[in-house]
């Protein structure tokens, strides 16, 4: 069972209304950030490669590098397999990310099957590929597969947003934020959208692409 799938803005609004009823601070964050974005993306190889490109760089840098990757035709497995390391380095990819991109290009991922797999099965399948950690797998499940109850507690922007929203003395650890997010079921993906939007308002910068 895949659970609820977020397809439209109405789904996001339903989840946000649930969270606002559940938690006054979530209600305040939602009021200050609405309307929330849908953030649905295509699924497949290109989106996972995009996520790898985005790791550990700013939103602006990730967007610029990805634009060059797309323009070079490296957003499909064959393009990555055919490209030289020099040409990929010229696009702004580190040696480590080149290795990850090539690992993804030769991985035998059944993207169609992932659409129907349970959340944890999706994450388990993806993290088997070098360069795809749990954060990347969770982001893919949230945005490319539309899973309504997936969260990414390792995300620094989510941690900082939670610190600000809940008046915490320090940024929560991944483990602590995962535990806090249990209360936001079955709409943890919408809780993430609220927190990212709150981070943008509070910090005047984007927390995620």
Defining key terms:
209 residues, Endonuclease Iii, domain 2, Endonuclease III, domain 1, single chain, 2 domains
Walk me through the structure.
- It is a single chain.
- With 209 residues, the protein is mainly α.
- The protein has two domains: 9-39 and 149-203, Endonuclease Iii, domain 2; 45-144, Endonuclease III, domain 1, CATH 1.10.340.30.
- Helices cover 62% and strands 0% of the residues.
- It is globular, with a radius of gyration of 17 Å.
Please write out the topology.
Elements: H1 9-22, H2 24-33, H3 45-54, H4 59-71, H5 77-82, H6 85-90, H7 95-106, H8 111-114, H9 119-126, H10 134-144, H11 156-166, H12 174-181, H13 188-203
> Between the first and last Cα atoms, what is the distance in angstroms?
28 Å
Give the overall pLDDT as a whole number.
94
- Profile the largest sheet: none
Instruction: Assign the CATH class of the largest domain.
Output: Mainly Alpha
Number of strands: 0
CATH superfamily of the largest domain: Hypothetical protein, domain 2
Second CATH tier, the architecture of the largest domain: Orthogonal Bundle
C-alpha Rg, in Å?
Answer: 17 Å
The unreliable regions are: none
Number of helices: 13
* Helix/strand class: mainly alpha
β content, as a range?
under 5%
Overall shape: it is globular
- Give the topology string: H per helix, E per strand: HHHHHHHHHHHHH
CATH topology of the largest domain: Endonuclease III, domain 1
Helix content: 55-70%
């Amino acid at each position: 069972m895949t659970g609820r799938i977020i397809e439209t803005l109405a789904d996001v609004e339903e989840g946000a209304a649930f969270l606002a009823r559940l938690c006054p601070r979530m209600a305040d964050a939602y009021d200050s950030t609405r309307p929330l974005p849908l953030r649905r993306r295509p699924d497949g190889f290109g989106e996972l490669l995009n996520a790898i490109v985005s790791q550990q760089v700013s939103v602006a840098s990730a967007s610029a590098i990805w634009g060059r990757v797309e323009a070079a035709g490296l957003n499909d497995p064959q393009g990555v397999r055919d490209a030289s390391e020099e040409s990929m380095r010229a696009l702004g990819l580190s040696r480590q990310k080149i290795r990850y991109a090539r690992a993804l290009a030769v991985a035998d991922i059944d993207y169609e099957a992932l659409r129907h797999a349970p959340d944890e099965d999706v994450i388990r399948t993806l993290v088997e590929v070098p360069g795809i950690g749990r954060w990347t797998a969770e982001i893919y499940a949230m945005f490319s597969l539309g899973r309504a109850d997936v969260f990414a507690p390792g995300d620094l922007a989510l941690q900082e947003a939670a610190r600000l929203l809940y008046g915490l003395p320090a940024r929560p650890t991944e483990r602590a934020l995962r535990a806090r997010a249990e209360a936001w079921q079955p709409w943890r993906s919408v809780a993430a959208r609220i927190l990212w939007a709150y981070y943008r308002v509070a910090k005047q910068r984007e927390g995620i692409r």
